[in-house]
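As promised in the previous annual report, we have extended the structural survey to additional targets. Below is the entry for Short chain enoyl-CoA hydratase.
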Amino acid sequence: MSQTYPLVVSREGAVGIIELARPEKFNCLSMSVHAGIEAAIDGFEKPDSGVRAILIRAQGRHFCTGADLDEVKSLRADPARLKHFISYGHSVLKRLERSDLPVVGACQGLTLAGGSELMLACDIIFAAKDARFGDQHAQFGLIPGWGGSQRIPRVAGLRRGLDLFFSARWIDADTALQWGLVNYVVEPETLGEAALAYCTKVATRSRIGISNMKRLARQGMEGSSEVGLKLEEDLVSAALLDDDISEGLAAFEARRTPAFKS
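The corresponding structure token record, generated without further manual editing, is:
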């Protein structure tokens, strides 16, 4: 990965890892961070990459506390560049959300504002027990700019979402779990191990099968149940002819672990 990206990109078996690497700035998000995430996704999604799951984690005490406000301030004098900054962040998080690969996030310390927007673009979230989550835009006269205004209410519910926006308060990991913002809460010292173990297990599944299920769930949430059900009907009819299905059925009959090709 180019040194111009403040990320560490690596692999652990079939798991591609994107590690935010700006601990001195609480891993705040900039154009170069988003460019690094996009480049990493491009590489991981290549059919010959060997990557079957993505893990996003961060160095230091905090996962991510939001956008790089120094960069925001520098762009306010140029509305066109400022708009591009927002639009590009949107496109990268949409790309992450719609990736064919399952994406798992591991959050420690603070996950705030733009950090929560990055988190919500992931499919599965592990949180350290001492982690805190929130949206502080209102405290400074700002509004969410990278999808938070839509994703938080959809996941946590309208009233909870508005409460987070209006109050700008932080919630703890157990509350985030109760609200559906995270999937698992673990001890801080086991966060990295637990998230990687989950990714490693998911990476043993059929890549095309996981991709289809993610597509069904994500697109189904965006439209009516009728549209989602029709998509399921069409996808499963095609999927049942796939080689991975043949392998899965053969493995079931032989009581062995499948060796998927996709």
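The mean pLDDT is 92. The beta strands are 7-12, 15-20, 53-58, 103-107, 110-112, 124-128, 132-134, 170-172, 184-186. These points will be discussed at the next consortium meeting with the crystallography subgroup.
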